[in-house]
Amino acid sequence: MIGMDVKRAPYRVIQWATGAMGKSCLRAVIDRPDMELAGLYVYSQSKAGKDAGEIARREATGVLATNSIDDILNIDADLVIHAARIGQTHTEHDDDIIALLKSGKNVLSINGNTFSPNWPRERQERLQAACLEGGVSFAGAGLNPGFAAENLLVTATSVCSHVESVSISETVLTDQIASPEYVFDLLGFGKEVGTIDLNADDWGPAQTLNDMFEDVVASVAHSLGWTLDGIERRHRMLPSGRDLEIRAGKIAKGTANHIDWRWYGVKDGAEKVALKIAWAMNDEHVQGADHDLWQIAVKGVPDVSVAFGVQRPEDYPGRTSAEQLAVAGSVVNAIQTLVNAPAGLLTSPITTPFAASEAAQE
């Protein structure tokens, strides 16, 4: 039951950054009657000064984008949706997040940050101290990390009287990503197979993804009552059998067109939690014809299997993907929980089911 001291809608929300995911979240905030856009942070000078509605392809909002962090810190707002660029290290944006928290704004990250007990102690303490100073909370939400394993996979075990192990596999076709920097430098496509050790933290993108998704494995194990001995990495790149023309450029025959990211939570020598993510530029190394976004398997009594995907509504305008729409939905549905949480670090899952707002029904 909601108490008298609970913050009610409308929630004043700042959107931090407007990449593909950030713009999806921005549109969701603008479109929601229970939310008020309070500010917009952008990286590029070319976007600074533009109305948020223009950037989001919506009607004018009266909120102008800024690339000044001080401007954002001085805005009165309940929460910041932090959709920053994925960095070379997972902690690259911590100073900005800490400043936001100290200014009295809850922060919701879409780039992992879902299970703080798995973080190094120093990082936990820095972010926890900033939360307490600002009287606010910090958490992560999104599609994966944030929902697929922490919510969907864990819920699937509810019908089991015994669970031996769980796994979730995700297949993402990436040929429509437009940014060459993102595709070739950050994701690693087009590189010579064997020139990068994905299982070490020497390559920045691998370090970032390991930090993000090892949190997911640890969260699932925690929810199921397992204390893991460790998390093993078995990542690999697979070569293209031919030259490929993709939206971001070219992938030469023999270079990476498929990347498997695979993490295994191990206890007493047995694999208890498996998280497998396939990034594929085509179907060459994808097993089977079914491209459901996620395949969930629970080995137990009984065994459970779930295929889960998301699709764009037929009449939805623009080019926003179904996955981007789902990230935005997960984020806006978590805002009420985070705004009304006790000050400090929150662990996933925090996303709640959709509920029609009072403002939408007036």
TrEMBL record:
Gene3D superfamilies, alphabetized: NAD(P)-binding Rossmann-like Domain (3.40.50.720)
A GO biological process held by the record: lysine biosynthetic process via diaminopimelate
Boundaries of every Dihydrodipicolinate reductase N-terminal domain copy: 17-82
A molecular function (GO) term: 4-hydroxy-tetrahydrodipicolinate reductase
Keywords: NADP, Oxidoreductase
Species of the source: Hyphomonas beringensis
Record-given protein name: Uncharacterized protein
Positions of the 2,4-diaminopentanoate dehydrogenase C-terminal domain: 213-347
